[in-house]
Design goal:
Length: 388
């Protein structure tokens, strides 16, 4: 097997120029969620050239990819994942161009020796991680059925394997009041904006009593029309996040009560809606993660975990609750830089970013080879996954 590992490392080395070009191409042409037309076409073309049977446009998404290697035998199924959506205005400030190129590199490298290996190899191109939940839709469409290991990496300000992600739900709160002249006849009005403000106040009071690591953050998306009209309609949007799915649901209930209390106090009518995306908390598989880290270090990127424990949310959380999976972080810049910033975007198109992407491609390829070919490894992965 060490021979196979050497072969996939060699394959990534030979692919280096192409992978750098893919990463740069996506970086130079950022596309937001569900609009990743250029990126998905480029990846589909590369996978087709690499001998995969490629479907572009799966799970009801024009830009989702399923690419299956034709050399399929008995044994485990490995899925290598690639994200490629960018953020509005600030481009690849989450480094998904590197995720796509790294995942592609791992898939092509393992594909180059797949006829010698048992099992099945799949590349899944997953659109709209940033608020669209492409992976959630792909799970619903059955694309993760039978997958024994889902492997991806994410660029970051540190290198770590164990960091989870927060469960998240997006909420929209609307209040309907009654317009009236704000000075001439304020007593005849019902102020919907006050209801929104009371909701914020209720949530701010709640904050002292929620577990560490949970987050509730919101904006007022509509606050009235003119100061001389009592606001008839006002609305706010919140993200509710927590380290556990159940606790997220508990917080959601508390947030609803804050809004109901505000409605009662002001007389405005409440509409409470779950909108947009809801992602589950991440459960990173340790057995898989440790393999990845060992091979990443061997590829020149040292382990460098962050000092704090802050987390975001991702639809890889849902994947990791459905099948064993990893979402390790690989450092591409110094750790005083924030994610989703212009500085992080710069790092995603930098030499350091490309070097990290190539090392991650090698580590993912070697991990995938182990899953396919090492007797007993899938059982250990599955045992950990089953032990909740
Ligand atoms: Zn991201």
């Amino acid at each position: 097997m060490s021979d196979w590992r050497e072969q996939v490392v060699g394959a990534v080395d030979r692919l280096e120029e192409r992978l750098r070009d893919v990463a740069k191409d996506l970086f130079d042409h950022p596309e937001v969620k569900f609009e990743e037309v250029r990126a998905s076409k480029r990846l589909a073309a590369e996978l087709t050239e690499g001998g995969f049977d490629v479907e572009l446009g799966v799970a009801g998404m024009e830009t989702a990819i399923r690419a299956v290697h034709p050399a399929a035998g008995d044994g485990p199924t490995v899925a290598v994942l690639g994200e490629y959506d960018a953020l509005p205005e600030i481009g690849h400030a989450c480094g998904h161009n590197l995720i796509a190129a790294g995942g592609l590199g791992a898939a092509l490298a393992v594909g180059s020796i797949k006829s010698e290996l048992p099992g099945r190899l799949v590349f899944l191109g997953t659109p709209a991680e940033e608020g669209g939940g492409g992976k959630v839709l792909m799970i619903a469409a059955g694309l993760f059925e039978g997958v024994d290991a889902a492997i991806m990496f994410h660029p970051s300000t540190n290198t770590t394997i164990g960091r989870g992600s927060l469960a998240i739900t997006e909420v929209k709160i609307e209040f309907h009041g009654k317009p009236s002249h704000a000075s001439g006849s304020p007593e005849k009005g019902i102020n919907a904006l006050d209801a929104v403000i009371q909701t914020f106040n209720g949530i701010n009071a709640l904050r002292q009593h929620i577990v560490d690591g949970a987050r509730i953050h919101g904006i007022i998306s509509h606050g009235g029309v003119k100061p001389n009209i009592v606001p008839e309609y006002a609305a706010a949007e919140f993200y509710v996040r927590a380290p556990e799915n159940d606790y997220r649901d508990e917080l959601l209930d508390k947030l609803r009560k804050c809004a109901e209390g505000a409605a009662l106090a002001t007389g405005a009518k409440l509409e409470f809606g779950l909108v947009g995306h809801a992602y589950q908390a991440m459960r990173p598989n340790k057995v898989l993660g440790e393999r990845f880290l060992k091979y990443l270090e061997a590829s020149g990127i040292p382990y460098n975990p962050p000092k704090d424990k802050s987390m975001g949310s991702t639809d890889m959380g849902d994947v990791s609750q459905t099948v064993p999976g990893i979402h390790p972080y690989v450092q591409i810049c110094e750790d005083d830089i924030a994610g989703h910033s212009r500085e992080f975007a710069e790092a995603s198109g930098s030499e350091r970013g490309y070097v990290a992407m190539l090392a991650a491609a090698k580590a993912m390829a070697m991990t995938a080879v182990d899953v396919l070919a090492e007797p007993g490894l899938v059982k250990r992965i599955r045992d950990e996954f089953g032990a909740v």
